[in-house]
Amino acid sequence: xxxxxxxxxxxxxxxxxxxxxxxxxxxxxxxxxxxxxxxxxxxxxxxxxxxxxxxxxxxxxxxxxxxxxxxxxxxxxxxxxxxxxxxxxxxxxxxxxxxxxxxxxxxxxxxxxxxxxxxxxxxxxxxxxxxxxxxxxxxxxxxxxxxxxxxxxxxxxxxxxxxxxxxxxxxxxxxxxxxxxxxxxxxxxxxxxxxxxxxxxxxxxxxxxxxxxxxxxxxxxxxxxxxxxx
Length: 230
Description:
Helix content: 10-25%
Radius of gyration: 18 Å
Largest sheet: 8 strands, antiparallel, barrel
Distance between the termini: 35 Å
Strand order of the largest sheet: 1-6-5-4-3-7-8-10
Structural class: alpha+beta
Strand content: 35-45%
Shape: globular
Oligomer: single chain
Number of strands: 10
């Protein structure tokens, strides 16, 4: 699988447990430098799927090898927009990412993308899916993230709060996005990502009696709403 694949663990925890872990993390790890002076940042991702909802069904059926395509922005800004393909092999993940323009995003939303020698390989792979398999936007996944890093071992631990879903794609960069909260009441999500081994001091810090690794998927939860982009 190479060095690009990383371990990924997810934990659904009560807000009180999250607050306890947040205090521990602040004492040991560094905040992601992209955070700046803010306590968290807002992530919005537009996910794409085909008319058969193949990506959704693969997740629900527990297919061991699968991938999802999304376009992501931060804090309602179009200064940084990424096209990402997240691949998963059981508990290992690998994310390819490139920067795109707002015009690229609008083409993707309209299904009018083109394969071009001037575009990067990842864009052309996505374009082929749009053209041949009719990939279209199906949901916006929105949440607030508090990110921590442990640079010596390339560990990233994030706390995700206020998960919500929308299909108001035209409002993707608007400060107010009509969205529906979808996270189970009283819970937040902790994600732990690392290359090969999680350092012992971080493993011990994350030990709580009720912590259970889960296959929780923000995308799947948002797609379960009775909405359709088709």
